[in-house]
Design brief:
single chain, 364 residues, alpha/beta, TIM Barrel, six-stranded parallel beta sheet, three-stranded parallel beta sheet, 16 helices, 49% helix, binds manganese (II) ion
């Protein structure tokens, strides 16, 4: 029984990173299209950060979600890690094979947020330098977001500013909770202040649910992309909205992936209950939650190349708020690019989805 469970756990990621260029799996690149395909949630890692993850996993030093997720990735090794590490020809070849013109690169989850503050700060800065170097080498193919360490909000805000002004990065990625803490806490708002004044977005990318929430997910194998990631980021985004942070920072741009992590589907009920059942500790918001979603939040299609969900999100948030993403290398599939090319929307809206919205939101 024990053996069986272990095998099942390992096999959770059996489909991850199947190389489309494998012999016996011939690739057929997607057709040429009258728009650029800009993929906006594409992952990478540095050797130093991977080494740091290996040490944490080896020492069982980390929250249950992190140890579950990276325990599996490190155990598996192979092509997934190779692809995360490659910032050169192999990545470009994979992009060409899938018809991707530009990747917006985000340090993979959970970024530097699992490390102690001083180590996190140093690894964020060195990874941003490395990312800028890769972009200088392939300026037509890569753009990127800065990694920051919310453990030290003031330093994180400074690193965001340095990355934007000196390195040409387009915003920051924060991999949801930082050691169980969320950005609705005013202690993090220097980061929002910096992003708003620089007019750059913050991408809230998933990681496994925070320690207080993760256990019932882990024991059922539901802690990662199947559900835990979405629950985690939906909570995080809604926490920011209901905290009043977006009344304080009305120009702040936040991007979330995976079709908006379920939130577009729930908006009517969220609006209704936020008014009807507002808790005493909640500030009085100037607008409905859905109004903030339509003013401050952008969503991407990462991992969800599915017309019913994405067209629904477009209908409630607006065509200008939904951006294409692939989620390379975790969900690297040519057929998903083709599925998205075939969405039942007009030509102008398709160009917005794949290209123009990304150019606007990330100033590409
Ligand atoms: Mn992702």
């Amino acid at each position: 029984m024990k053996n069986k469970q272990n095998t099942r756990k390992k096999d959770r990621f059996a489909g991850v990173g199947i190389p489309m260029s494998d012999p016996g799996r011939p690739m057929k690149p997607p057709a040429k299209v009258p728009y650029k395909r800009i993929a906006t949630e594409e992952a990478w890692i540095t050797p130093e950060i991977l080494k740091g993850y290996r040490e944490l996993v080896g020492n069982k030093d980390g929250d249950a979600g992190f140890l579950s997720l990276w325990g599996v990735f490190i155990g598996r090794g192979g092509i997934l890690l190779d692809r995360l590490l490659d910032m050169g020809e192999n990545r470009i070849r994979d992009m060409d094979a899938a018809g991707i013109d530009v990747q917006l690169l985000l340090l993979t989850a959970p970024g530097v947020q699992v490390f102690r503050a001083d180590k996190a700060r140093a690894l964020a800065a060195s990874s941003n330098d490395r990312l800028a170097e890769a972009i200088r080498k392939y300026p037509e193919r890569f753009a990127g977001l800065a990694a920051i360490a919310p453990q030290g909000p003031k330093t994180a805000a400074k690193e965001l500013e340095r990355s934007f002004r000196k390195l040409g990065l387009k915003g920051a990625v924060i991999n949801s909770h930082t050691r169980g803490e969320y950005l609705d806490s005013p202690k993090f708002w220097e980061i929002f202040e910096a992003a708003e004044s620089l007019k750059v977005p913050i991408y809230i990318h998933p990681q496994t649910p925070s320690p207080d929430m993760v256990r019932p997910f882990v024991k059922r194998g539901l802690d990662t992309a199947i559900m835990g990631f979405g629950v985690e980021v939906a909570l995080h985004t809604l926490a920011i909205i209901t905290s009043g942070a977006l009344d304080r920072f009305p120009e702040l741009k936040i991007v979330i992936g995976h079709g908006g992590e379920g939130l577009p589907y729930w908006l009517y009920r969220i609006d209704y209950m936020q008014e009807y059942n507002r808790q005493a500790f909640m500030p009085k918001l100037r607008m409905l939650p859905s109004d903030y979603m339509k003013r401050n939040i952008y969503i991407t299609t990462s991992g969800l190349p599915w017309a019913p969900a994405i067209t629904m999100a477009q209908s409630v948030l607006g065509m200008d708020r939904v951006l294409y993403a692939m989620d390379y290398p975790y969900q690297y599939r040519v057929e998903e690019v083709v599925m998205t090319d075939r969405f039942p929307i007009g030509a102008a809206d398709k160009k917005n989805l794949f290209q123009r919205n990304a150019e606007k939101v990330f100033s590409l």
